[in-house]
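2024-03-11 09:14:02 DEBUG pipeline.ingest accepted 1 chain
2024-03-11 09:14:02 DEBUG pipeline.ingest length=119
2024-03-11 09:14:03 DEBUG pipeline.predict start
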Amino acid sequence: MNPNVPAPQEVKNPVFRPSARRRKKNCATSSIRAVIASPLVLAMVTTGIHGWSRNPIYVGMFLVYGGIGIAARSPSTLILTLPLAITIRYGVVAREEAYLEERFGDAYRDYKARVRRWL
């Protein structure tokens, strides 16, 4: 083990162990949570591909998903791209943008004004 690399710490997160009451109360959405792997985002990346799109990973995912649908000649895969895009947009991207706006304030708002969300 490299002494310069910190040892992984156990993450105690209630998202993975929802209480029985929460499971009964909201079974459909209790496991759908945005989990931030890093406890703190330290800097914004605004250069390179992030200068063209604020969400290049999701754009790439949609292109791969659509490409698989076309290559497999699967209309159902292509049709399901729309609900996937809506879920990613409102379930993930909205939360990420709210977090980044709170974290970086005016710097992120300026970035949002300059760079489009998708392409």
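2024-03-11 09:14:41 DEBUG pipeline.report DSSP finds four helices and no strands in the chain.
2024-03-11 09:14:41 DEBUG pipeline.predict end
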